[in-house]
Automatic annotation (TrEMBL):
It is found in: Cell junction. This is PKP2 protein. Keywords: Cell adhesion, Cell junction, Repeat. The keyword Nucleus does not apply. Residues 94-107 have a biased composition (Basic and acidic residues). Its main location: other. It comes from the Eukaryota. GO terms for cellular component: adherens junction; cytoplasm; intercalated disc; nucleus; plasma membrane. SMART domains: ARM. Residues 79-109 are annotated as: Disordered. The keyword Repeat applies. One of its GO terms (biological process) is protein localization to plasma membrane.
Amino acid sequence: RNMSSAGPEGRKKMRECEGLIDSLVYYIQGAIADHEPNDKATENCVCVLHNLSYQLEIELPESYAQSIYMQRRNISNNDKTPGCFGTRSRKVKEKQQDTPLPEEKSNPKGVESLWHSTLIRIYLSLIAKSTRNYTQEASLGALQNLTAGTGPMPFSVARTVVQKANGLPSIRAMLHVSHPAVKRTAVSLLRNLSRNTSLQNDIAREVLPDLVSVLPECVPGADVACETAASICYTLFNLTQSSSHNARLLLSAHGLPKVIAISMNDSNMFSKASRAASVLLYSLWSHTDLHSAYKK
């Protein structure tokens, strides 16, 4: 666990170590099967996998990524779409967001396991069943890492979490825990998921009222809480930017007074949350059909 946080070279060596990732996944699967999701070894295993998934998109070799994800795609010679671990281009993200990936390998080995649906479901199971804060945070953090990029893999993981594995109820429950780091990581994961336009309505229906409910009445004093408030505002921005219906959901959940209160705090210390709230307000005002409702 300590070595897995030693930086890019350490992560590279550990990802390449034959049998290591498979053993970690095997142990966690056994712990869940034996109804022991709270033991310390499971926490350590999940924390290692969390660290090994960090910056996975840019640290894996391009050739390796292409051999996994591009092998069954019919791409013309004139198509310059890069591999899924390559660019950060917005146009490419929009194009790849709707591109289906090839079917998963039934028996992933090594580094392939890090983004496989089997491990995604394991993380969601631990989020739901474990009561250890570090295990919950590491599971959420691993999913946050895997959904942080702009290629097909992060969007495929997001679709698995939201649509295939029905993970939103478990993530939503983490919004209401008392541990601030767990709550922050859950919000950061939802922020990543909400970038996927095809999932925004599902996410808004499941968790938008909960996001509003945990948004503070004013800018919080603690750094972690302030960062969480900013992430909530950016998540709500993603969900409402292109949807008047979702903006109305925010309105009916009594979110507007909270967003206004946060945006009006001009303290430099809290500018991150205030700025995020202001961006959200600006976006909400673009829905002209809601102006009369806003004024009321």
